[in-house]
Structures are given as structure tokens and as C-alpha cells.
Amino acid sequence: MKRFYYILAIASALFFTATSMQAQEESENTQQRARRTPQASRGERANDKKDTGMPELTVRAQDMNERMTQEVGNARWMRVIYRQIDLMKEKNAPLYYPVTPMNGQMNLFSIIFSLISEGKIDAYQYEDGYEDFSEGNKIDLKKMLDSFGIYYEEIAGQGNQGTTFVINESDIPSEYVRSYYVKEAWYFDQNNSVFDVKTLAICPIMTTSGDVGELTMPMFWIPYENIRPYINTAFIMTSNINNAMTFTLDDYFRRRMFEGDIFKTQNLMNLPLQAYCPTPDSIKKEQDRIEGQLVAFEKSLWFQPDTTQVEDPKAAKKASKASARGQRGATTEKAKETKEKTIKTKAPKAEKSSPVRSVRRRR
User: Fold this and answer.
1) 259 and 92 in contact (C-beta within 8 Å)?
2) In the predicted model, what is the mean pLDDT of residues 216-226?
3) Peptide bond preceding 218 in cis form (omega within 30 of 0)
4) pLDDT tens digits, 85-135
5) Are 161 and 174 in contact (CB under 8 A)?
6) Model pTM score
7) What is the SS3 assignment for 289?
8) What mean pLDDT comes out for the span 214-237?
9) CA distances from 350 to 39, 238, 347, 353 (A)
10) Going along the chain, which residue ranges are E strands?
């Protein structure tokens, strides 16, 4: 019996010892977590940024993007046009609003900036006069943020992870991006009998106010094919009357719902319009001339009826009436001529003979 109580006492002592050691370990773990709280919060902020950013592309989205890619390599005729889209115009406002992300909606620059900061797409340096989309011309994110005065938080990576740049949504300068350069190709594919327009690249332009007035700074070039899979699901409102979001940003570019002015065409001397059009009126005339050339080339591809032979229905009706009147008049004149001929060809009437004296004998 005494042996039983002895064993019970030893078991109780071991139980309380194990409980106390477990409590001590939990306390130490709690203290360690408390000491790591500042670093964990920044890491969580970085993770939250990635989680709330643009989604990763699925295999289906990548396949759809490849199928929707317009091939211009087989084009027998192509003309490259550069346009400037002013977001302050009402027709281009869907690319500008909302200025800051709201209810899960972002404007075009916010989407582009998020994709670049998360490393999902590459941007290329803006070169005056040409575009270079090679590996050596990619922009450095840190240098770009510093050159445009964008606030960010730099978090050193651990292990194989690189440096992470955390930018608050309020620090994205989407408010100052008020215009875009758009590079597009008008082309005719003879193999498929297609005349179409392809957006090649876009360049956001930041506008800032200084002592000398407004200063415009092109930021970088982005191939349109790189961002299309992401903006293909970004729905926008395109009308103040109809608030239903029935179009995406990709639809906005593919359907050419924007309004842009030509400032350059690809030419042998690589000159913009301003280089050989010194006045605003001459620039406007040159823009209209280029637009007319594009329309005229498209019309020349297909059979067009001879407009000189196409009669207005009203004019045709009047002409038919005049023709009918002319025919009736001609018939009347012909009848008159025939009657005159008939009258002329009739035998003349016998002249009246002199009175004949009677030969009867007179008594």
C-alpha cells in the first residue's frame, strides 16, 4: 500500500514538472513573438501588398493572350502612327478615373504601376526618337522611383528573395499621369485579307507644376501585349449616362474608343510633325492629311461602285419624268410630221370646171 502511494506521488511530481516546463516554453515563445513584431508587421505588409495586387496569370489566360495576339509580320503594307491621348478630355476619362483605387477599381496607371512594382511585367526606358525593348534597356525600379520622387519602403529579402519595394496606394502618382503616348500599327495582311490596327506600346506621361509652368515627363514604354492579359478583366465605366461596366480596358484600346492626336509617324528621317510643321495650323492640316491617307488606303483595297453612275432616287425620278415628257413630245412631233407628209402626198383636188352650156335646141 505504501508502495502504491509512493508511485502516485512520483507521478504527480512528474506531471506538475512537465506542466510548468510547457508553460515556461509558451511564455518564451510569446516573448519571442513580441520581440519580432516590428519585423513581422513589415513582412505582413509586403505579403499583403502581393496578395492584394494583380492576380497571377493562369494557363488559360496565357493561351487566350497568345490567340488574341495580332501578327503583323505577314503584313504587305504597314504604317506606324504615334498618338498622344489627353486624359482630360471626356472621351478619354475612363483611363484616368478613379484617380485613387476605390472599391477594388483602379485606373490604367495604377494597374501598370502595381504590375511593375510586383515584378510581373517589365518596363523599358523612354528614348527620344525610338523604342528599345531589349533586355539591356529595362528600367531599374529603384532608380525610377527616385527619379520621379515616388515614396516607397525598401525591405531586404531573405535567402533567395530579392529586395521588396512597398508603395502605398496613396503614393502612386496616378493623379499626375494625365496623358499617354500610344504607338500603333495600321496594317494590311494580304494572306488573311485583313486591314486592322494593332496597339504596339504605351507610355505614361507625368505632368508636374513648377516655377516655369507645367512640365511633362514621359516615364517608360511598356509593350501592350505584356499588360493586355491583366487589363482584359479590368472593367470600366465608359459613359456618364450608362453606369453599367460593360467594357474592359482591353476593349477600350481594341475598339479604339479613345481620341488621340497624331504627333509622329514612322519615317525615314524619324522626324515628328513639329519638326516640319512650324505652326499649329500646319500641324492640324498634316494630321488631317495623314488620317485621310489611312482612310483612302482602306477604301482602295475593296471594290467601290462608281459614284458618278449612282443616281439619287429623287433625281432619277425627275429624270424619268423628263424623259417621259420628252418621249411624249417626240411622239407628238413625229405624228405631226407624219400627218404633214400624208397631207402633202394626197392627190390634189380637181379644179372647178367652167359652166357647161346646154346644147339642147332652143325653141
Assistant:
1) yes
2) 94
3) no
4) 999 999 999 999 999 888 888 999 999 999 999 889 999 999 888 899 999
5) no
6) 0.68
7) helix
8) 93
9) 142, 100, 9, 8
10) 75-86, 124-125, 153-155, 164-166, 177-189, 194-210, 213-218, 220-223, 235-236, 247-248, 260-265
